[in-house]
Amino acid sequence: MPKIKKLLVANRGEIALRIMRSAQEMGIKTVAVYSEADRLSPHVKYADEAICLGPPPSNQSYLLGEKIIKFCKDLGVDAIHPGYGFLSENASFARKVKEAGIIFIGPSPEAIEVMGSKLAAKQAVSKYDIPMVPGMEKAITDIAFAKSKAAEIGYPILIKASAGGGGKGMRIVESEGEFEEQMQRAVSEAESAFGDGAVFIEKFITSPRHIEIQVLGDQQGNIVYLFERECSIQRRHQKVIEEAPSAVVTPELRKAMGEAAVGVAKACDYHGAGTVEFIVDEKLNFYFLEMNTRLQVEHPVTEMITGKDLVKEQIKIAEGQSLTFAQEDLRIQGHSVEVRVYAEDPKNNFLPDIGKLSTYVRPQGPGIRVDDGFEEGMDIPIYYDPMIAKLITYAETRQEAIDRTVRAIDEYQITGIQTTLGFCKFALQHEAFTSGQFDTKFVERYFEPAVLEEKLSAGEEELFAALAVEFFQKSKKEAVQNTMAQSPVKSSAWKNRLK
Ligand code: ADP
Ligand code: ADP
Ligand code: MG
């Protein structure tokens, strides 16, 4: 069995660092790659060796598969971990890695290929009795036929790019009148973003939750599920808060979804870590959406509740080792929440807000994990995904995990850029979230920039009031004997009110 001795991480930022940490614990040497914009990044400093790929744009650096493979040969690297994004779901890269005699930490190129196309994926799983969103299983070629299909399904419908990803390439069609226009837009978007104009129709589930299942499979054909992650708090069809377990999933539903996910994995002879995404309607019917053939951004919440290190599992599987546990050995313990800290301005439609991290102080204390890839004083480059960190918490119960996350957000100090932290605090404290009764429309339904403004000005008001009282007390200090004894109590009471 091949033992991996030197691993190249073909990625940047928090995920590169997170992967290297597991490698380090396993006694595996690490090689970082970086673009000129990331020269001073923590992932570069952390690695045993680091090599520059080129200028900042991804297509001149992190997407240069051939160059990465050449570096591997030069440096005697035996395995590549692609992380998420970039080359992680690129079947031809995975194939070239394999042909070069290097281990690709992920599934087979064939599995990546099938699951990379939403249509091919639907086709592949059709034999496995997996519930699917009503819609078309083929790309639209005939508009009249697609329209009749849409009428059959009932509006609103969703036009989706088969090659879509990252929440891009989707168009909602409310009525037949706008079908053609939306379809043309969807095709041209799909062509420019993914180089593939194939689109299809799905029923638009109006009050959906996004719940996904983590799977792990070894090369011997054993596949297990590591339960669900609730990912319904999204903006632009992209997740911002995730948790495990989900507040609405019952043991029966968990088992049914878990087994369906294993079926999806079997359909493509999957090995490695993967995620099967489902959409769940108000009646808790679940439908297969897609499979992501890589480590997921939100994988830490699963690590927290299962006690498994998913990166170590990926590495062991890639080496050809069998899983050391079976389905019945896995248990959910406690509750975990992740909030994604994006350099975005929630008050300005969540638009990227890059700049310098003038202050950057991480929260600490019990049950807190921060996965990030920046240090204070660094610039957030404009070239890549604007996620700067993931704040993950763990506690015994859901409410305790929520309270702990809010506490950690209060401790997190970031200045110089706008972030999603304030929005996340708002969401975590919202009744819809705490009660568990929410769907992917949370942002549209409950969030408006004013809720952050109001919070701020209410806070400021109290701060001014507190300062005024303090000033008043100070001026009386000489006259009042016991001020010293009273003030600590008072000031902490004010502090609590300010929160
Ligand atoms: P996850 O699916 O792991 O929950 P995201 O949807 O945020 O997380 O995607 C993970 C990363 O991959 C992000 O950096 C995102 O921009 C990128 N990504 C996902 N799909 C694609 C794609 N098809 N093309 C380019 N980037 C993608
Ligand atoms: P991507 O590859 O971009 O991640 P997905 O198919 O996973 O595409 O969908 C991304 C998000 O879009 C989902 O998490 C969900 O919020 C929304 N979505 C996708 N399909 C539907 C649908 N049929 N009805 C309602 N919302 C959907
Ligand atoms: Mg998805």
Q: Which keywords apply here?
A:
single chain; 499 residues; alpha+beta; Rossmann fold; Dna Ligase, domain 1; D-amino Acid Aminotransferase, Chain A, domain 1; 4 domains; eight-stranded antiparallel sheet; five-stranded parallel sheet; 17 helices; 20 strands; 23% strand; globular; disordered C terminus; binds adenosine-5'-diphosphate; binds magnesium ion; biotin; CPAse_ATP-bd; PreATP-grasp_dom_sf; ATP-binding; ligase activity
Short description:
This protein has 499 residues and is α+β, with helices and mostly antiparallel strands.
Walkthrough of the structure:
The protein has 499 residues and is an alpha+beta fold. It has four domains: 6-105, Rossmann fold, CATH 3.40.50.20; 134-203, ATP-grasp fold, A domain (Dna Ligase, domain 1); 209-452, 2-Layer Sandwich (D-amino Acid Aminotransferase, Chain A, domain 1); 463-498. The chain is built from 17 helices and 20 strands. Helix 4 (91-99) links the parallel strand 4 (79-81) and strand 5. The longest helix is centred in the C-terminal third of the chain and has 27 residues, at 450-476. It is globular. Bound molecules: adenosine-5'-diphosphate (ADP) (2 copies) and magnesium ion. Residues 277, 290 line the site of magnesium ion.
